């Protein structure tokens, strides 16, 4: 409760030290906390040098008053986690997602067409369609795989693994022809239940072949799960400490990556440079024929054509990832081209430097008034999401008619609901 009383001070102090950032605090008419949005100006500036993809998700908080944390993250040029903004709400529902997307739109002021990747929460999907009508939405492939596995009743593990891998190939198929071929095979091998599940999915939201936007090969929202795990300890803190500790973590991460990147000698980020080594191993046995100054045929299985002037490959991977595929790599090496000139600028070291060029300012408490929290009109805790008193139950309440099995403890010999490992009974000598 004291933390909620200090939240108004934190909002004022954050706005004063980070004037270009966005902090929106809403309260009920009864002065109880409703929800709060926090967006960092340094992250907003850096996001303009990242790929226009946002990974959004919500996770539960573990403090006394519960609640839910909504977040939007991106990826930097070195494939690293790049938190952009967050919000604390009472629950993950349509109203809160709509409000979060409204704040996100006002905060970004980004003229680019964004791509959203999420786990298909209904409220989130509706909010994105209404607030960002021109932005395509991508479903998380990992989430779809988990739903698909529920249709595998009665199948052995090897068959399940085969079908999941086939589903994965469908999602990553770069062309419509390849996708339809794999999809028909999956429906035939999986049976009626798998075919029914696939019919419920809109191909525009989960596979490369039909996706209307550009998502640079990203098919999973695991990045946001990494963010949720990154702030695992902070999720148990009171509300003011929660926001401040997350601010400190992001502030320190930006400073650390800024310093580390100053030592990089290459043109593109190290993670992307490593990909070139893998491409060499894949394509070193392929033969290549030149058709014109820019057009080449790469003879592999199957053979494909590469146009280096338009950054395109008939197989489609170069266009999807904006990063040379193995076929393009083979053609570029044949002509002695500089590979770095054919990589999207989002993967460059210069873009990475710009991403972390700004800093999140400190919010010192040295000038904090000692009377903060003593006013009767300060912010009060939420109305309806407070945990009940007492410790949470460790055992389920049995349903009517269910008989629980009695256990004989091997240490004290008593019949009850504990065993030797959990026995706390005193022993008589």
TrEMBL record:
Q: Supply the SMART domains for this chain.
A: ZnF_PMZ
Q: Which Pfam families match?
A: MULE
Q: Name one GO molecular function term.
A: zinc ion binding
Task: Specify the signal sequence span.
Answer: none
**Which residues belong to any copy of the Zinc finger PMZ-type domain?**
311-338
**Superkingdom of the source species:** Eukaryota
Indicate what this protein is called per its UniProt record: Zinc finger PMZ-type domain-containing protein
């Amino acid at each position: 409760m004291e933390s909620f009383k200090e939240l108004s001070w934190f909002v004022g102090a954050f706005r004063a030290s980070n004037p270009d950032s966005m902090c929106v605090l809403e309260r009920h008419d009864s002065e109880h906390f409703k929800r709060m949005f926090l967006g960092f100006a340094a992250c907003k500036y850096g996001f303009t040098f990242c790929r226009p993809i946002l990974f959004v998700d919500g996770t539960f908080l573990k403090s006394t008053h519960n609640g839910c944390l909504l977040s939007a993250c991106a990826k930097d040029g070195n494939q690293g986690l790049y938190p952009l903004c967050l919000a604390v709400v009472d629950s993950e529902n349509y109203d809160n997602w709509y409000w979060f997307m409204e704040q996100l739109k006002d905060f970004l002021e980004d003229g680019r067409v964004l791509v959203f990747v999420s786990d298909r929460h209904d409220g989130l999907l509706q909010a994105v369609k209404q607030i960002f009508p021109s932005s395509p939405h991508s479903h998380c492939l990992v989430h779809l795989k988990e739903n698909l596995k529920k249709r595998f009743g009665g199948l052995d593990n090897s068959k399940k693994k085969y079908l999941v891998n086939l589903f994965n190939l469908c999602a990553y198929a770069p062309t419509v022809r390849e996708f339809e071929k794999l999809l028909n095979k999956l429906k035939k091998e999986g049976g009626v239940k798998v075919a029914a599940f696939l019919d419920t999915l809109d191909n525009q939201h989960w596979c490369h072949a039909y996706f209307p936007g550009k998502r640079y090969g990203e098919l999973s929202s695991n990045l946001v799960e990494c963010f949720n795990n990154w702030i695992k300890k902070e999720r148990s803190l009171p509300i003011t400490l929660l926001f401040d500790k997350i601010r400190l973590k992001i502030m320190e991460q930006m400073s650390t990556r800024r310093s580390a990147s100053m030592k990089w000698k290459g043109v593109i980020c190290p993670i992307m440079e490593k990909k070139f080594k893998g491409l060499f191993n894949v394509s070193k046995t392929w033969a290549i024929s030149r058709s014109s100054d820019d057009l080449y045929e790469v003879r592999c299985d199957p053979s494909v054509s590469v146009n280096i002037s338009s950054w395109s490959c008939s197989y489609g991977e170069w266009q999807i990832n904006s990063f040379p595929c193995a076929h393009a790599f083979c053609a570029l090496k044949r002509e002695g081209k500089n590979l770095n000139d054919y990589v999207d600028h989002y993967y460059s070291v210069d873009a990475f430097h710009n991403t972390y060029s700004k800093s999140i300012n400190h919010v010192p408490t040295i000038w904090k008034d000692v009377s903060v929290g003593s006013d009767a009109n300060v912010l009060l805790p939420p109305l309806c999401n407070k945990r009940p008193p007492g410790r949470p139950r460790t055992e389920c309440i049995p349903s009517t008619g269910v008989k629980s099995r009695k256990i004989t403890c091997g240490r004290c010999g008593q019949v009850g609901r504990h065993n030797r490992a959990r026995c706390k009974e005193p022993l008589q000598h």
